[in-house]
């Protein structure tokens, strides 16, 4: 069983649904982990259904393999553009390749990168105190080490 064949099957199976493939991990021991996400939420029944469909398409009698189908975990780095797009308007935590960490609202996302919006305290000429101003900055994906959904548990 090959990752490419699983990828093609899963992408066809999820086409037209609110679910999408994030990645497929495999091991030399023929263990496959299929990671999916959704524009809304992934329920356990959808994962079971997808797992059964994959097992039905790839016979265990012909090729011995282990299969796990999971949803992308909360707090895991985003990996595909569709994950970024579903978080537009929500807070994210971004680690840049220069080790700068940014907590901001995801404003835009496209194939080139992301735009973040956040409040920054800046010195204003003629005033003693710094003032808060809204800042929007764009970052290409090659400057981003990871982006995660930010969850505030306060």
Could you write a compact summary of the structure shown?
The protein is of the alpha+beta class and 154 residues long.
Q: What is the radius of gyration computed over CA atoms, rounded to a whole number of angstroms?
A: 20 Å
Major sheet characteristics: 5 strands, antiparallel
Uncertain regions: pLDDT < 50 for 5+ in a row? none
Count the E strands. Answer: 8
Shape descriptor: elongated
Please characterize this protein's 3D structure.
The chain is elongated and about 80 Å long. It has 3 helices and 8 strands. 12% of the residues are buried. With 154 residues, it is α+β, with helices and mostly antiparallel strands. The N and C termini lie far apart (46 Å). The mean pLDDT is 91. The longest helix has 14 residues. The strands form 2 sheets. It has a 5-stranded antiparallel beta sheet with strand order 7-6-5-4-8. Helices cover 21% and strands 42% of the residues.
Which tags fit this structure?
single chain; alpha+beta; 154 residues; three-stranded mixed sheet; 21% helix; 3 helices; 8 strands; five-stranded antiparallel sheet
């Amino acid at each position: 069983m090959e990752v490419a064949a699983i990828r093609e099957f899963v992408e066809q199976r999820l086409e037209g649904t609110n679910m999408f493939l994030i990645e497929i991990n495999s091991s030399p021991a023929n263990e496959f982990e299929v990671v999916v996400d959704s524009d809304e939420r992934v329920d356990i029944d959808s994962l079971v259904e997808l797992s059964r469909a994959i097992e039905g398409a790839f016979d265990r009698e012909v090729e011995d393999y282990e299969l796990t189908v999971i949803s992308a975990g909360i707090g895991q780095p985003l990996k595909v553009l569709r994950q970024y797009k579903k978080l537009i308007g929500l807070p994210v935590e971004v680690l840049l390749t220069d080790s700068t960490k940014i907590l901001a609202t995801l404003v835009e996302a496209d194939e080139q990168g992301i735009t973040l919006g956040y409040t920054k305290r800046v010195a204003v000429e003629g005033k003693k105190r710094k003032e808060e101003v809204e800042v929007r900055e764009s970052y290409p994906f090659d400057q981003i080490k990871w982006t995660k959904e930010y969850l505030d548990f306060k």
